[in-house]
Amino acid sequence: MDVRVVVAPVFGTNCCVVTADAERPDGRRDCVVVDAGAGTVGGVLRLVEEHDLVPQAVLATHGHVDHTWDAAAVCETFGVPLRLHEADAYRVADPFGTIGLGSDEGPVAAVSEALTQALTDFGCTPRDYRAPAWIEPFDGTAPQVVAGDVHLRALHAPGHTEGSTLFLVDGGARRGVVLSGDVLFAGGVGRTDLPGADVDAMLATLRGVVASLDPALGVVPGHGPTTTVGHELATNPFLGG
């Protein structure tokens, strides 16, 4: 499967379009859109048109609003659901409340202020957010998320949020890729000081789920440059590197 990235102009969220290898009977290919951040819908539409794709679902690695802002627009355009872990589904209905928007306390206040400013610079406000009308939560026991011809392995990876999920993309003859959301970055890991985060859960995720990944896997994080699992295991200070 191929992974193409559209970088959101708000918070630089990496929105990924994952395309199936197999052609449909009509000669087109199925795809899913992962983490439709603010301002990504135009880039997604261009990729769909240029590569003759058929979106089957929008997925979210977790429920933070910088990963779901354009989910409603993409879902409505293609008539597909938003799918994310059931533990984060509550965030979609109230994305700003669940990160403490308006709080004047510590790191939550800083994130709230930064997000509000980023949206203002983009020309919108929290009032412009629309939740997708059709949401299909999946639970932590689901070994795969299947949408049309796209099959992704789903690994529950709590810590940054309760429902954070890693999506593994089989590369076939090419190197596979893990879409790590805000669990793992190049040289860093997701923060654990926001509402719903858990330091102990993050440590368990890093020492268990992330450490057990194939070092050859490429990593497309929720923000920032790509990397590999092997490089992070060797150099990331949060993984003992």
Quick recap:
The chain has helices at 41-50, 71-78, 89-93, 106-122, 199-210, 229-235; strands spanning 2-7, 14-23, 29-34, 53-59, 82-83, 144-147, 150-156, 165-169, 177-181, 184-185, 188-189, 218-221, 227-228. It is α+β, with helices and mostly antiparallel strands and 241 residues long.
Rounded to the nearest angstrom, the radius of gyration is 17 Å
User: Structural class, judged by helices and strands?
Assistant: alpha+beta
- Annotation, overall tally of beta strands: 13
Shape: globular
The portion of residues assigned to helices is: 10-25%
Characterize the biggest β-sheet: 6 strands, mixed
Count of runs of 4 or more consecutive helical residues:
6
Can you tell me the CATH topology?
A: Metallo-beta-lactamase, Chain A
| Sequence of secondary-structure elements | EEEHEHEHHEEEEEEHEEH
Which segments are poorly predicted (pLDDT under 50) over 5 or more consecutive residues?
none
Placed side by side, the strands forming the largest sheet appear as 6-7-8-9-12-13
**Could you state the CATH homologous superfamily?**
Ribonuclease Z/Hydroxyacylglutathione hydrolase-like
Q: In the residues, how many domains can be counted?
A: 1
Strand content: 25-35%
Mean pLDDT: 92
Quote the distance from N terminus to C terminus. Answer: 30 Å
Instruction: Specify the CATH architecture.
Output: 4-Layer Sandwich
User: What's the CATH first level?
Assistant: Alpha Beta
Keywords: Hydrolase, Metal-binding, Zinc
Cofactor: Zn(2+)
InterPro entries: MBL_Glyoxalase_II, Metallo-B-lactamas, RibonucZ/Hydroxyglut_hydro
Pfam families: Lactamase_B
